[in-house]
Specification:
Blueprint: E1 27-36, H1 41-52, E2 56-65, E3 70-79, H2 81-92, E4 97-102, E5 109-120, H3 123-135, E6 139-143, E7 147-154, H4 156-166, E8 171-176, E9 180-183
Antiparallel strand pairs: 1-3, 1-4, 2-3, 5-7, 5-8, 5-9, 6-7
InterPro entries: Acetalactate_synth_ssu, Acetolactate_synth/TF_NikR_C, Acetolactate_synth_ssu_C, ACT-like_dom_sf, ACT_dom, AHAS_ACT, AHAS_small-like_ACT
Pfam families: ACT_AHAS_ss, ALS_ss_C
Protein name: Acetolactate synthase small subunit
Length: about 190
């Protein structure tokens, strides 16, 4: 049996490549969900995601209107465009949900996250951690002779980059708030 020859410029897709070339790409979306601030609402929203196998990458929630008892849930999730549309439609059907906004597609938005990093080290590692913190405009919010607690605010990518640089310098513990996001401009979402 002679070996299979492929002409130059011809397609060399493997018969074992089972990926669907027409499959939709996975996209990351930030959703802002305005809800009544009442018991069980967050559990219902999370239940929608877990019950259908959708992943939540980031979740923040806080009351935004004390007199109206309204809260805002910011969810970062990933899925194909059709899955994202399903998520938005299903969220909109939950009774205490007032509005669902996909900040990713509705126009420019601002996303920020807060991170706290405990870094332990002495000597050169300690000096390097402080130098990098200065470059990233990070605040030192606690200091002992053996460690620092740094506070960083920025995009998730900025916080990820800072974490990677701190790992070899003695990163011990990380706490992150999750993404808070607002649309840009004069419209309210």
């Amino acid at each position: 049996m002679s070996p299979l020859k492929i002409k130059k410029g011809a397609s060399s897709h493997s018969a074992y490549d089972l990926r669907d070339p027409h499959a939709e790409a996975i996209e990351r979306h930030t959703l802002a969900v305005v809800v009544d601030n009442e018991a069980g609402v967050l559990a219902r929203v999370i239940g929608l995601f877990s019950g259908r196998g959708y992943n939540i990458e980031s979740l923040t929630v806080a009351e935004t209107d004390h007199t109206g008892h309204v809260s805002r849930i910011t969810i970062v999730t990933s899925g194909t465009p059709s899955v994202i549309e399903q998520i938005k439609a299903q969220l909109g059907r939950i009774v205490p949900v007032h509005e669902v906004h996909d900040l990713t597609v509705e126009g420019p938005s601002v996303e920020r996250e807060l991170g706290l990093f405990k870094v332990a080290g002495t000597g050169d590692k300690r000096v390097e951690a402080l130098r990098l913190a200065d470059i990233f405009r990070v605040n030192v919010v606690d200091s002992t002779l053996e460690s620092f607690v740094f506070e960083i605010t920025g995009t998730p990518e900025k916080i990820d980059a800072f974490a990677e640089l701190m790992r070899p310098l003695g990163l011990q513990e990380v706490a992150r708030t999750g993404v808070a996001a607002l649309s840009r401009g004069d419209g309210a979402h």
